[in-house]
Amino acid sequence: MEGGRFLHSALNSLRTHQRQLSYAALATLAVAAVAAVVWISLPLPATLSGPPAALSLEIQDRNGLLLRATRSSDGSHAQWVPYEQIDVDLINAFVTIEDRRFWEHSGVDWRAVARATNDNLRARHVVSGASTITMQLARLIQTSPRSWGGKFGQVLWALRLERHLTKQQILEQYLNRIELGQATVGVDRRIPTGEIAVTRAMLESRQRYCCQS
To answer: How confident is the model at residue 69 (pLDDT cuts 50, 70, 90)?
Structure first.
């Protein structure tokens, strides 16, 4: 009899403890969610919403012909091209290869996340990514480790960027910060239309590499 009462009391204590843990976990999640919403709504730092301080110097003649270009302080060739001056075909090439639903989502493409998760689970290794252009911009302006924690940070930054910037501003930031190889950072307003196909091939190769790494 005593043993039965003791067991009943122990089970009740265990259930009470489990409920307390559940309530604590829910409270923690609620606080974290509120904190995330507040953080996302905060204005972006001025250093993240404009051109970086380190840019290359271009010397042009009175007709705008490039005479000489110097490297920026970090050794790269970097210029800032306003969105309106970027070739529309180049913009379309980046969007088509990197983020087909860029104009539709709010920073995170959940359809792509579901697809990539399914592909990676079936292949048992990473064969597909789900980073949007906004998430890639987040990684460019705020370096994060290649981990689940780093990916979560990119998601939060992507939501914050989409909250405060237009799609055109996000593309301007991304296209001027992306590393294109050979110490070149950002696109060039003078890129010939005939080189768009080369750029598309480079992007496709870069996309495959990113999925495998």
So the answer is: low
